[in-house]
Structure formats: structure tokens, C-alpha cells
């Protein structure tokens, strides 16, 4: 492995990679361990944010929500635009799309 690191000819980087793969193939368990190690997250911020969002959605008042409903509400909570981008959001287009999805009572509200 030291011969690969100290190689001075950088013009053939493909050859170096091939040589490294050949030498590392002699240690398949080590390679698997390194791949697992590289997959470990550095922090648990995303997980904690998910639990916080779940606790905000499923409160004691709304404790009978289905799993699919909670999943949809969590996706909506994560994927909504931030308040700073609300000026760019076209509410009229979103409302027209919503009205066109199904026959809803909103059409009756528009007529009155």
C-alpha cells in the first residue's frame, strides 16, 4: 500500500485506483467495515427534528390519526417552503389546482 501512496506519477490515476482495488480485494472484511463506518451519520439532528415534528403533529388532542395521515402531514411539514419564500408562492394557482382535483365545496364558495 505504501508503494501506491508514494507513487510520483500522477498522470495515470486510473492505474493507481485499479492497483488499490486489487490490493484491497485481499481484505474484503476490512473494506466492508470501512464502507459501514463511512455510512454512520455524524449527528442525530435529522432524527431529532423528525421526532419533534411527529410530536407537534400527533398531540393528545389528535391521538387517533392514521399512520398514513401522520406520514402525509410530516411530509407536508418538511417539504413546505419557508416563510421567507412565501412572496414567491402563487396561492391563486395552488387554489385553482386544488379546486380542479375533485368536486369540492370550494366551487360553491366561489359562486357565493
Task: Write up what this structure looks like.
The protein contains seven helices and no strands. The protein has helices at residues 2-5, 13-24, 28-39, 45-57, 67-79, 91-101, 106-111. The chain is elongated, with a radius of gyration of 27 Å.
In short:
With about 110 residues, the chain is mostly helical.
Query: Which stretches are low in confidence, meaning pLDDT under 50 for 5 or more residues running?
Result: 4-8
Label the structural class.
mainly alpha
What's the end-to-end separation, in Å?
79 Å
> How many H/I helical runs?
7
Q: How much of the residues is beta strand, in percent?
A: under 5%
Subunit arrangement of the protein: single chain
**Number of discrete domains:** 3
Q: H/E series, N to C?
A: HHHHHHH
Q: Percentage of helical residues?
A: 55-70%
Shape: elongated
Give a quick account of the main beta sheet: strands, pairing sense, barrel closure: none
The overall pLDDT, averaged over residues, is 75
Radius of gyration: 27 Å
The number of distinct β-strands equals 0
Amino acid at each position: 500500500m505504501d508503494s501506491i501512496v508514494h507513487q510520483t506519477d500522477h498522470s495515470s490515476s486510473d492505474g493507481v485506483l485499479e492497483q488499490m482495488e486489487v490490493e484491497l480485494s485481499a481484505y474484503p472484511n476490512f473494506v466492508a467495515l470501512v464502507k459501514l463506518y463511512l455510512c454512520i451519520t455524524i449527528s442525530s439532528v435529522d432524527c431529532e427534528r423528525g421526532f419533534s415534528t411527529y410530536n407537534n403533529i400527533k398531540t393528545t388532542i389528535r391521538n387517533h390519526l392514521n399512520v398514513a395521515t401522520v406520514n402525509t402531514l410530516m411530509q407536508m411539514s418538511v417539504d413546505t417552503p419557508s416563510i421567507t419564500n412565501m412572496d414567491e408562492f402563487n396561492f391563486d394557482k395552488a387554489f385553482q389546482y386544488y379546486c380542479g382535483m375533485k368536486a369540492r365545496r370550494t366551487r360553491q364558495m366561489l359562486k357565493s
